[in-house]
Every structure is written in structure tokens, then in C-alpha cells.
UniProtKB/TrEMBL annotation:
Subunit structure: Homotetramer.
Family: Belongs to the zinc-containing alcohol dehydrogenase family. Quinone oxidoreductase subfamily.
Protein name: Zinc-type alcohol dehydrogenase-like protein
Keyword NADP listed: yes
Organism: Roseibium album
Residues annotated as domain Enoyl reductase (ER): 16-333
Coiled coil regions, renumbered to chain: none
Keywords: Acetylation, Cytoplasm, Metal-binding, NADP, Oxidoreductase, RNA-binding, Zinc
GO molecular function, one term: zinc ion binding
A GO cellular component entry from the record: cytoplasm
PANTHER family assigned to the protein according to its UniProt record, in alphabetical order: QUINONE OXIDOREDUCTASE
Principal localisation: cytoplasm
Amino acid sequence: MKAVALTHYLPIDDPKSFLDVDLPKPVPEGHDLLVSVKAVSVNPVDTKVRAPKDTIEETPRVLGWDAAGTVEAVGSGVTLFKPGDEVYYAGDITRSGSNAQFQLIDERIVGLKPRTLSFAEAAALPLTTLTAYESFFDRLGIDRDGGNRGESILIIGAGGGVGSIGIQLAKAAGLRIIATASRPETSAWVRELGADEVVNHREDMVAQVRALGHQYVDHIAIFNDMRHWETAVELIRPQGAIVTIDDTNLPMPMDKMKLKAASLHWEFMFARAMFQTPDMIGQHKLLTYVAREIDAGRIRTTVDTVLSPINAENMRKAHALIETGTAKGKIVVEGF
């Protein structure tokens, strides 16, 4: 089968950072689906895993953790899907990735693709949707069905992939959304998706949020990086909560968090699959719920750029776009 892989971890402008290779077609066992991949999307986690380091892979390594495709075959323990089903999923960081014609994926972290979306539109959604959903409803404890209606949430880095779907999920839950964006095009994008107010995360966010009439906000999601930690601590209400998806080596002073009795939550959507948690099937249920919401017209895809075909050249282009830090929505690569 065709695949895009790496053997060395190189800067993305190096033509050997990704290679077009032929690999054996895998065989499903147990809970595995064998999926014929039609489209993939690229996330910051892809660029972090590929970042330059001295490691050399003896056999080509396939990255990629967002895909949509068709079930080709199933393992003996599969009960949720059958060959021919169209599916979408974010995958498992401990297994071979989606940048290949065929991929093995555990059925418990897969959902049926939204019927109203193309493969490219669907591939833009799983990882960011799982991340935003778990951030808001599992980590922060917000009620998906409106029990926290009218409360405020500050989404820092709202114009990216996670923020773009996060705005829509927060809106559906009835929250008042303060989104951050730093450019006119991303400001327009987050408003289009449903943000009530927009502030610039490259300027004084505390002053901007308070000028809007919010002394504190009820919930905060840091969806870009932890440089904004002290701003988040200043703005979170007493007994409020902050969720972040960014790992960091930066200092994280906790004294004000203690005074406010506020809480910090980490979100990593790969944790369920990585540790085979008892609630692993929750991601199947979550993706099923989101597909229904999309088909009902209440949530939209966040795809912004589509490249074709899936090959090393286009994968380098996609990674380069992500590494600028200014991508709007999601970047998808479609078709072998």
C-alpha cells in the first residue's frame, strides 16, 4: 500500500522530512477495523511528533491522527461496524498513523461519518472535536445540554482547529463566548462560528476582557500555548476552572489559583486509547453524537484548506502551514 512516512526527524523544508513509500497492507484482528483512508487532516500534534531530533526509525514510521474513510475489513471481535461503512476517527498515537492507504483502528474510538459531509470535510473534525468536547464537558464539567446556559467562557486560541469546533460546542451548550484571535481574518472566522465577543491574545487580554464588562469569566480554555497562563489565572472567577491542551516547561505560578480555589485540568484526547481506559468507547459515542449534530445542521465542518493527493510533497506543505502558527480552521489532504 502507498503511505507517507519518515525515517529521520527533520525540518519540514528538508525534502527528506517525508517520503513516499510502499508498505505491507495490515490485517485486522480483535476490535480492529481496516479502513481504506480517503482523507486526513493535519494537527499541531503531527508537527510536534515530527519535530527534529536525533532518532532514526529502522522501518518507515507513518504519522497522522485524523482520518475519514471506508471500512475494508473487520477483526473477529468487531460489533459496531461492517465492511462498507463510512467512518471518521482521530486514531491512537501509539499505533501506525493515518497517512497511508489502509490503517488499523480500534472500533471503540471510531464513529460513522456524518452523512452530509464529504470525506475531506469529515476528516477535519475528529481530533479537534474530541479535544474540545472532552475539554468542556468532561474536564470542566459543563453541561452539554444547557445546564450552564449564560455562563461565560474564554477560549484562548479560538481560530485554530480545536477552537473552531469548540466555539460551536460551547454555543450549542448556551455559553457566552469570548474568543481570542490576533488577525482580521481569524477574528471574522470566530465571529462567523458563533463567538459573542473577540479579543486579541497578542495584546493585554485582561484589560480587553474587563473593558467588555467581565471582571472574571466562569470557564477558560487555553487552546494555543501556556504563555497565557498568568492571564488565565487573573481572569478565572473564584472556584472556576481552566483547561489546557498544551504541555509546557514554562513556570506556572499557583498561588492565585489557591487563593481562588480554582482548578486546572489537562486534556489529552489520546489518553483513552493509550491507556485502554474502561470508558474508551466514550469516543465512539461522542463522535456519533457530533455526526448527528452535523447532519442536523447545528455544527459545521471546520475545514479551511484542502490539498490533493496524499503524498510527501503535500504533507510537507500541510506541516509547513501548521508550523506558521497562523492557520485558520483545519488543513486536509485528500486522496491517494
